[in-house]
Specification:
This is SCO0930 family lipoprotein. Keywords: Lipoprotein, Signal. By secondary structure, this protein is mainly beta. It has five helices and 17 strands. It is elongated, with a radius of gyration of 22 Å.
Amino acid sequence: MKTSWRSASLVASAVSVLALTTACGQEGGTAASSQNVGVTAPAGTVAGVGSGYGGVGAGTSPSASAPAAGGAGGAAQAGSAGQLAVSADAELGKVLIDAAGMTLYRFDADTAEPPKSNCDGDCATTWPPVPADDATAGDGIDKSLLGEVTRTDGSKQLTVDGWPVYRYAKDTNAGDTNGQGVGGKWFALAPDGKKAKSASAAPGLSVRKDPNLGDIVVDKNGMTVYRFVKDQAWPKPVTECLGACLEKWPAVAPVATNDTEGVQKKGLMSFARPDGIKQMTVNCSPIYTFSGDKAPGDINGQGVGGTWYAVAPDGKLVGAPKQ
């Protein structure tokens, strides 16, 4: 398998929120995305006791944590990945699974640049590494994110965006997510290689790296956020999406400044619409979601009518023609 990963970074700003009369301004240009591809490196040393892999000590035997070989989980743990797929989990949103439907995980003690596994010995018994040999990308998965890393025993482990991939021995049925949050270091994998997070813990606004659009703003449910080119940001936010338009493009409700992650703070505020609804802005521009987006990560609203576009972390339009 050809080794590759994507270098993903969130655009963060520590600028304080300014007053409405001084913060709102006009934009220029559109957002761009980038991708770095490199070569995987050999895995590191064996992780010792206390490395946070789920409370399994050095004296724990494989049979104490691994499911029986004859069970559904046991068969899945021993097998290769096959075609990866995306599962919609009620709590975690989009989660990466293998061909048997078993949830895939990443470990905070590992590294993605360069790829390096720090889970060996008892850790690897509780968290079996996923072989890289026959892993392929199914629908909704960017195949360029799949790679491999050489472990200390010489075996090839699957990586997603550089992160070594594991199953959890205590997941015995397809769809189980018992490994989520274990030890504060293990997390289910999202399709882009990031951590899957509980919807209730997600920020009101954050940034997601879309394979086509680059860094874009999403709401707390992971739904893509859009701007309407007919709206105004200067000298104050003004919406031109009223009545029936609002049914198709719901206004994003106000979000506290400290409930955002990776979004520019300047111009991050709410305003009162003519219909009395309070709406959020990014860089003073009103923001919306799209009724045609049915699942987190959908970008069906992008470019609709030549007037609706996803929003970059600095509030600019993503992919819109230059004015």
